[in-house]
Amino acid sequence: MSLLEIASSFPEEWKVNIGDAVDNFIKSISIKYQAFFDAIKAAGIWIVNSINSILMMIPWWLFIILIVALTYYVTKKVRTSLLYGGLITLIGFFGLWSHMMETLSIVITSVAISLLLGFPLGVLIALSKKAEKIIRPILDMMQTMPTFVYLVPAVILFGVGKVPAIMATTIYSIVPMIRMTNHGISHVDKEVIEAARAFGSTTMQTLLKVQIPQSLSTIMTGMNQTLMMAMSMVVTCSLIGANGLGMEILVATNRTEMGKALLPGLAIVFLAIILDRLTQGIVKKSEKIYE
C-alpha cells in the first residue's frame, strides 16, 4: 500500500476484531455458567411477577385514590392531586391498565435493584479514593454508551423477556444513584464531620448518623433520576420481549398504526410525569426535615 493510500484512508488490514473477541467471551460465559444465570432468571421472573400480581390485586378505583392521596400528601394541592388522578384514569380509558401495571412492575424491580446496588457503591466511592479512580471511568462509559448496547449481553445471558429487560434497565439507570450518593456524602460540611469525630464518633457512626442524613435530599434526587432513566428504557426494552406499554408502541409502530402507538405513548408520559412529581415532592420533604 502506497503512502498516499495510507494517508487518504485507514488501512483495512490494521483492523482489530475486538467485537468478535467480546462476543465469544460473553457467549462462553453464558454457556459455562448457564445454571447460575438460569437461577437468576427464575428469581427475577418470580420477583417481577409477584410485584405485578400485587399491583393487579389493587382495585382500579383504590389505586387512583392512592395516587390522589399520595400526591396531596407531597404537594398539598387539591388541583394537582385531582389532575394526577385524572391522568391515571385516562390510562384506564385507553384500555391500557394491565399494560401499565406490567410496565410499573418492571420499573419498580429495576429501580429497587439500582438502589440496592447503587447506594453502597456511591458510599464506597465517597469513602475510598482508590475505589473512585476505578469506578468513575466505568460510570462515565456506562453513561455515554448507547442504550441498545445493553440489550445484547442481557439477551445472550438471560434470553428474551422481562429479566433481560430488568438487567438492561438496571445497568442503564444505576449511574445517577451512584453519582448522587457519592456527591451528597462527599460534600457534607467538613466542620460537621469534624465535630462528630471530636465527640468520639467512629467512621461508621459518622457515616450513618451525620453524612447520610445530611446528604439524604441529594440521594433522593439520585433516586428520582434513576426512576426517570428506568422509564426512558420502557420502549427500548420492548425490543427484547418485555411486555407492557413499550410493547404496545412497538407493535403499533411495526403496523404503522399511528393512533394505537399514540395512546401507550401518552400513557408512558402520564406515568413518568406522576412518578417524577411524586419523587420530587418526597425530595423536598426530606430537605425540610434536615434544614
How would you describe the overall organization of this protein?
With 291 residues, the protein is mainly alpha-helical. The chain has one domain (20-57, 94-289): Orthogonal Bundle (MetI-like fold), CATH 1.10.3720. Helices cover 83% and strands 0% of the residues. It is built from 15 helices and no strands. α3 (34-57) packs across α6 (97-127), α6 (97-127) crosses α12 and α14 (245-254) packs antiparallel against α15 (258-289). It is globular, with a radius of gyration of 23 Å. It starts with a helix and ends with a helix. The model has no long low-confidence stretch (mean pLDDT 89).
How would you characterize the largest beta sheet? none
Q: Which CATH-level-2 architecture?
A: Orthogonal Bundle
Low-confidence stretches: none
SSE-based structural type: mainly alpha
Percent range for β-strand residues: under 5%
- Assembly type: single chain
What is the secondary structure topology, with strand pairs?
Blueprint: H1 3-8, H2 18-32, H3 34-57, H4 60-75, H5 78-93, H6 97-127, H7 129-144, H8 151-158, H9 162-186, H10 190-198, H11 203-214, H12 216-232, H13 234-237, H14 245-254, H15 258-289
Helix pairs in contact: 2-8, 3-6, 3-9, 4-5, 4-15, 5-15, 6-7, 6-9, 6-12, 8-9, 9-12, 10-11, 12-15, 14-15
Question: Which structural traits does this protein have?
Answer:
291 residues; mainly alpha; MetI-like fold; 15 helices; 83% helix
Question: How do you describe this structure in short?
Answer:
The protein is mainly alpha-helical and 291 residues long.
